[in-house]
Write a structure and sequence with these properties.
The complex is a heterodimer of chains A (about 250) and B (about 100). By secondary structure, chain A is mainly α. Helix content of chain A is about 70%, strand content about 0%. Chain A has 12 helices and no strands. Chain A has helices at about 1-20, 25-35, 40-50, 55-65, 65-80, 85-90, 95-100, 105-140, 145-160, 165-180, 190-215, 225-230. In chain A, helix 1 crosses helix 9 (about 145-160). Chain A is globular. Chain B is built from 4 helices and 2 strands; from the N terminus they run ααββαα. Chain B has helices at about 1-25, 30-55, 65-80, 85-100, and strands at about 55, 60. Chain B has a two-stranded antiparallel ribbon. In chain B, a hairpin with a 2-residue loop joins strand 1 and strand 2. In chain B, helix 3 runs antiparallel to helix 4 (about 85-100). Chain B is elongated. The chains are: A mainly alpha (about 250), B mainly alpha (about 100). The interface between A and B is large, with 112 and 78 residues. Chain B: Pfam families: AzlD.
Chain lengths: ~250, ~100
């Protein structure tokens, strides 16, 4: 229920910001229907809003979608859908459905949780994207309503839950600085890809150091969920479900 | 029309990535380095998108009403406000500052 309300409101923000970024209503709705992974969709419109090219927008969205591959592997290990279901399951593999599934302890409940969260969010997300897109289209000058400020707040809101611990915060600061430094020198949209590269290198290097040195300090750095750890102590309650925060 | 191409291509890429997770051998899952990099890249991209949307103006940096939105959103998040409240606060502050004649 709380997922449903959050999804609805989040979808309205996406729809409104999508059309004010310069996409058409149909393009905004196509992203929700076909891309269906909130973070990547916001990345796409964020780059377009900043004057970036379609190619840069696509690259940023794709990089942000990589965590979905990790989710897919985890879900496959959890209840391994077969046949055509696997192709449907892939489409609704997002933060919320993965979080709901890994919050359950037995296979049947995991499967049920995954499908109900995945399909439920899919329907609501598309419905409310449409509402937001038409509303955003109707209001006139988006700046007068502060919608560019809303986009800033939305990205900070997406980032915030991932800043658990010192290392994620340090990575965020370094990437923010890299972005600011890159803006004057490269075309719009590209600074975001520069920051992604910096983050990737930091991840690579810090992994090597941590592996050589001490057990990994993974808090906040993982793509949120680890069903293997959860299985190891399956009696420890459902708090995992609250960890995947946003699509 | 060009933008449509990138919309569709990005959607296809997003689906391919999701499907890949179901098709790769299970042992890849144990590669902690790749898992870690997926996590750091997510943080880096979101941090960068926040900054670009707050300060970016084409190839220049601008300090306008959006800075107010960024600060207000941070305060709202510190107070554990839900996502939509954070977004509305961001919009309201930018709109309000513009009414006052700044940015």
């Amino acid at each position: 229920m709380s997922i449903a309300v959050a999804t609805g409101l989040y979808g309205i923000s996406f729809g409104a910001l999508g059309v004010t970024s310069g996409l058409s209503v149909l393009q905004t709705m196509a992203l929700s229907l076909l891309m269906f992974t909130g973070g990547s969709q916001f990345a796409f419109i964020g780059v377009i809003a900043g004057g970036g090219s379609g190619a840069a927008a696509g690259a940023a969205a794709t990089l942000l979608g990589i965590r979905n591959a990790v989710y897919g592997m985890q879900l496959n290990a959890m209840f391994g859908p077969r046949g055509w279901r696997r192709f449907a399951a892939a489409h609704v593999t997002i933060d919320e459905s993965t979080a709901t599934a890994s919050g359950q302890s037995d296979r049947l409940e995991q499967r049920r949780g995954f499908w109900s969260a995945g399909l439920g969010v899919f329907v609501l997300w598309n419905l409310f994207t449409a509402v937001g897109a038409f509303a955003g289209n109707a209001i006139g000058d988006p700046k007068q309503w502060g919608l560019d400020g809303a986009a800033v707040a939305a990205f900070l809101g997406l980032l915030w839950p991932r800043l658990k611990g010192r290392e994620p915060a340090a990575i965020a600061v370094v990437c923010a600085l890299a972005t600011v430094l890159a803006v004057p020198f490269v075309p719009p949209g590209v600074p975001i890809l520069v920051a992604a590269l910096v983050a990737g290198v930091l991840g690579w290097v810090s992994h090597a150091r941590a592996a050589a040195d001490r057990p990994l300090e993974m808090e906040g750095l993982e793509p949120d969920l680890d069903p293997y750890a959860h299985r190891a102590h399956r009696d420890e309650g459902p708090d995992e479900a609250s960890r995947g925060d946003s699509a | 029309m060009n933008l449509w191409f990138w919309v569709i291509a990005s959607c296809a890429a997003a689906y391919a990535i999701k499907l890949l997770g179901y098709l790769v051998p299970r042992r890849w899952m144990k590669n902690e380095r790749m898992t870690r990099i997926a996590g750091t890249v997510t943080i880096g991209l979101l941090a960068s998108l926040t900054v670009v949307n707050a300060l970016g103006n084409g190839q220049a940096l601008a300090f306008d009403a959006r800075i107010g939105s960024l600060a207000a959103a941070a305060v709202a998040l510190l107070l554990r406000a839900p996502f939509l409240v954070v977004v509305i606060v961001g919009a309201a502050v930018a709109a309000g500052l513009r009414l006052l004649g700044w940015g």
